[in-house]
């Protein structure tokens, strides 16, 4: 898709107009205004029937009345008047607009026509349209809260760009990430994708130095090949969660007006274009988090080190089911491990130390430096007296150029400070053996698919 | 399996001896003593080479020196001397013992022989043996912390009995439950199952009025039919997580000395005997939590109500993949919903209200009372101004005799108080659409399997 708008005016604006700004709490025009009012740039509430001011800013009657270059307009007005507002935005030189309301292509013939007109006008004026039918976007690093939802000001800044077809799913993902203390570079709900689609947003965040991974929630798109090609061309790792394995087509069409399409074709297409797919929102977040915060593996060989056999078996089982290999360790590694822990419970791969112990970090280091190993997954129940082997693991991942991922469980009060230190030392920490295994398996799959990935244009239209 | 010991002396003792109690912090004999020292009954530290006292109790040289009926002995001594200690326990009339140490059947020929001797002696004296090779058990309600792990005193009391083949997995599950504020009636790590196996523990907690669901972590057992028959005979819902779908047999054998067996046969066996199986520790906990805290569904028809289409599609997709049906609603229900919300986004099943709104609770109630529906799953992003429809949902599940399950996301500070109120109102709350869907699907599967479940003895040995 070719476009002439600049997404920087959407995601990194200097000035914002809130059209339909309202003093009535609970209305979208109030919530959106509340969320952007202390954004670092200039903010203009627009409402022809309002007087006075809101959050310290005076109402103006129209975007055309603003004596300033407005980059972004947030439209909190009903569908039927949106085309006119976009026309005014065009006259005023606005560069981008978010359209929150529904009643467009997802809502039958009339809505389809409104969306067509609005998009035509926007394209004439080079206006990027996020939505319609979206709850918006957030860029935590710049405190840009272009969403009407409450609580979005606490999303922690970080390296994962969330790009979801559904605004609701975008917010659900971002709140989940926040609860688990994982940083995001942006959260974007695409909605009906009038002229800003997956492709444009992926390209933008691929070029964003703050973004280390892009995660996609996909219901369906009319041009799957274009989406796949964009993912393929991105240097940043992209992971996708394609919804609609079962038949949910009718309901999905009522949502963002998109067809869910043939699930198997999508899955195959993503694989062929180098994009691992996952089966849940948690897996999507987890893969993004590890990819953004640790080195990527060069291959699919995983070394597992566990202090408790039971969770270690769960991890090994899960990795193998996902097609990941647990190769033999080099003789040198096995010797080192046996030197560190004579009589060790199980010194193949997985390495099972039988219990947490002071030497545990040295064992992990030995496995991480093994040439047969592309990624390391560690399980250790937290023991208050011992803590985690933070010193041995600090910087290890960077040093060996492989992800080192930790899974654990324990009492929150003891665990929390050690978890923070370990994450700061470059080791992502999970509190479920399966989630850690799934994340590592997804990264290993990324390595495999990127090796195999097809060049442009060899896949049939999905 | 017939046995003559009493598991009440293990899980509900009046007096405990800690054999190998130690004043050295970090040693199992210290940690176990610390965990039980202010247990409500009498506690005796036993160590022939220690003098003085520990946690206010005087050391004795042997269990035979204790002038009291000792119900339970916690053995913190190495494998080779365990048979002799069990012999002394027998002389002293001890009713049950937990053997923490490894070096038994999981560790080669010599260990197999030690385990055989120990078990023979225990059986002669009617002593129940938990382990060997386990980190123990916990009964939160009576503050009985028969584990040597730290932090177990914070497990919240509740209705789920965790029965895990691996002590490490038992603890991992209990810490996960604690982190997610879910109560457990007991956590049991079976280890090598010398004479207390799945069957005995399931029977015990099936008869426990505090236990509303039993969740099993299974690596493998020599007598699968006996396990299956016990699950089948239990009135309490049982859910199982069978590990070992991929080939992890060697490593598993090194763990609790058990074969993982043929995974597909186990899965089929569980299904035939009325036990839903799950694929992760989270799914296991989630199914147990809902079964213990809400009415069980009578069938597999689920009604979905969502305030945001995107997460609703994820839920519908996930439910359908799990073989759950989303039937049409009764005409009366559709009319009621359309009366409550004229112009509603999607009034089939799922019902999509498009946004959270004050009428949301009334819509959920309408679907819950629909005769076509056996269970209700609701998704609503939390909005601070609106909260959850607690008043409308309070007691609804009991009233209609169906589980009503909520999934949400939102900022923790706003969400937490509403979540607690909703859970107190009888509505389990999840913060991931997939986890809620998986839990409801597992309960629906339980209803289906219990209808179909085979009578005793019709399955081949698995």
Automatic annotation (TrEMBL), chains A, B:
Please indicate which superkingdom the organism of origin belongs to: Archaea
Could you give a GO molecular-function term held by this entry? acetate-CoA ligase (ADP-forming) activity
- The broad enzyme category this protein falls into is ligase
Q: The CoA-binding domain covers which part of the protein? A: 10-104
Q: Which UniProt keywords apply?
A: Ligase
Q: Which Gene3D superfamilies match?
A: NAD(P)-binding Rossmann-like Domain, Succinyl-CoA synthetase domains
**Catalytic activity as recorded in UniProt:** acetate + ATP + CoA = acetyl-CoA + ADP + phosphate
Protein name stated in the entry: acetate--CoA ligase (ADP-forming)
Q: What is its EC number?
A: 6.2.1.13
């Amino acid at each position: 898709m070719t476009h002439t708008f600049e997404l920087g005016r959407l995601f990194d604006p200097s000035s914002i107009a809130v059209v339909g700004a309202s003093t009535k709490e609970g209305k979208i025009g109030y919530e959106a205004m509340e969320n952007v009012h202390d954004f670092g740039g200039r903010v203009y509430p627009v409402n022809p029937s309002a007087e006075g001011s809101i959050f310290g800013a005076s109402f103006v009657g129209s975007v055309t009345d603003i004596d300033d270059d407005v980059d972004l307009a947030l439209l909190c007005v009903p569908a039927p008047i949106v085309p006119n507002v976009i026309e005014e935005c065009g006259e005023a030189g606005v560069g981008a607009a978010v359209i929150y309301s529904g009643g467009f292509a997802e809502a039958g013939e009339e809505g389809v026509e409104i969306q067509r007109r609005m998009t035509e006008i926007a394209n004439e004026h080079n206006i990027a349209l996020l939505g319609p039918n979206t709850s918006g976007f957030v860029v935590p690093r710049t405190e840009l809260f272009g969403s009407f939802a409450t609580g979005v000001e606490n999303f922690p800044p970080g390296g994962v760009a969330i790009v979801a077809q559904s605004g609701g799913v975008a917010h659900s993902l971002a709140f989940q990430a926040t609860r688990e203390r994982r940083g995001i570079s942006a959260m974007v709900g695409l909605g009906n994708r009038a002229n800003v689609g997956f492709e444009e947003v992926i390209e933008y965040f691929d070029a964003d130095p703050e973004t280390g991974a892009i995660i996609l929630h996909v219901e369906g798109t009319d041009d799957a090949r274009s989406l796949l090609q964009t993912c393929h061309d991105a240097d940043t790792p992209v992971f996708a969660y394609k919804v609609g394995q079962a038949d949910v087509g009718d309901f999905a069409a009522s949502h963002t007006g998109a067809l869910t399409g043939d699930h198997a074709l999508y899955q195959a297409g993503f694989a062929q274009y180098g994009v691992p797919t996952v089966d849940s929102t948690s897996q999507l977040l987890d893969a993004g988090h590890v990819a953004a915060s640790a080195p990527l593996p060069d291959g699919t060989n995983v070394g597992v080190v566990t202090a408790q056999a039971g969770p270690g078996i769960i991890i090994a089982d899960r990795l193998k089911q996902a097609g990941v290999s647990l190769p033999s360790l080099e003789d040198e590694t096995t010797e080192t491990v046996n030197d560190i822990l004579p009589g060790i419970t199980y010194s193949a791969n997985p390495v099972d130390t039988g219990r947490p112990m002071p030497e545990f970090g040295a064992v992990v280091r030995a496995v991480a430096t093994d040439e047969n190993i592309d990624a390391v997954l560690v399980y250790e129940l937290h023991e208050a007296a011992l803590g985690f082997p933070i010193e041995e693991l600090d910087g290890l991942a960077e040093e060996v150029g492989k992800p080192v991922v930790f899974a654990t469980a324990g009492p929150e009060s003891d665990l929390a400070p050690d978890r923070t230190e370990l994450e700061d030392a470059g080791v992502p920490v999970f509190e479920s053996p399966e989630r850690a295994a799934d994340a590592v398996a997804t990264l290993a799959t990324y390595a495999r698919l990127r090796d195999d990935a097809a060049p442009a244009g060899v896949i049939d239209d999905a």
